[in-house]
Amino acid sequence: MIQDSALKVPVVAIDGPSGTGKGTVAARVAGRLGWHVLDSGALYRAFAYAARLKGVNPDDFQEVVDVDVDSQITFQSAAGEVRIMLAGEDVTDAVRSEEGGRAASVYAAIPAVRSILLARQRAARKLPGLVADGRDMGTVVFSDADAKIFLDASPKVRAERRYKQLKEKGFDVNLARLEKEIAERDRKDVTRAESPLIPAEGAFKVDTSHKSIDEVVEQVMVVVHTCLRKSTS
Ligand code: DC
Question: Does residue 4 belong to any structural domain of this protein?
Fold first, then answer.
């Protein structure tokens, strides 16, 4: 057992629906620990973008498998922001749009897509450690994670946060429509057969509806330190 934990690269898994602050919290926690960060949603978004560009029919297994772009998806840090690159092209704005999220949700429900991206996600597990955010980090991809966190917030608060973000980026958005779209995407993510969005067993749940990012980060850091102490003892 001692040997196992000495060899194992530690992982903090942060799951939850969109609009809970997952991405920001994961990046801040990774910064505090000095660890790597994995935004698994960005992989699904970039995959869906490439598939749609090729005109792939999501119901055609072979067409989906042939998309084969996971190795062409890279992340670049620029001016304190992470840009998503696809074969060298910056696709951040397109994949981060609401349309990009909808498309990602469709492809994320396809088992072949999930298994294509699985190896890529696991390869991100490198020393000194990884903070991974997504929907199935604690249940499937890193089921042996040292700390598992599940962030949630009311659909109304999540829609308002997303509305503000999109407005700031100059997108033309409608709050009521956004709320409906978020509820629809949740339904798809929660009810799909493959890796549905559910809290991992033993995950520490945080409702971020009425908390600032700083408060959530502090709470998560306490959990992480407690869990890391346990896994190294
Ligand atoms: O976290 P996000 O909003 O960028 O994710 C985009 C979509 O990808 C979301 O609808 C669910 C899907 N996704 C997933 O199924 N599994 C993950 N680990 C991450 C994202």
Answer: no
Return the HEC string of 165-176.
HHHHCCCCCCHH
Atom of ligand 1 nearest to the CA of 136: 18
Q: Which of 37, 70, 96, 135 to mutate to test the pocket of ligand 1 (most atoms within 8 A of CB)?
A: 135
pLDDT tens column, 40-57: 999 999 999 999 999 999
Rounded Cα distance between 197 and 4, Å, is: 29
Domain of residue 111 covers 10-228
| Spacing, Cα 151 to ligand 1 middle (Å) | 14
pLDDT (tens digit per residue) in 5-25? 557 899 999 999 988 999 999
Q: What is the CATH number of the domain that holds 180?
A: 3.40.50.300
Residue having the nearest C-alpha atom to atom 15 of ligand 1? 108
C-alpha–C-alpha distance, residues 109 and 189, integer Å: 7
Atom of ligand 1 minimally distant from the CA of 23: 1
Q: What is the pLDDT of residues 156-183, one digit of tens each?
A: 999 999 899 888 888 888 999 989 988 8
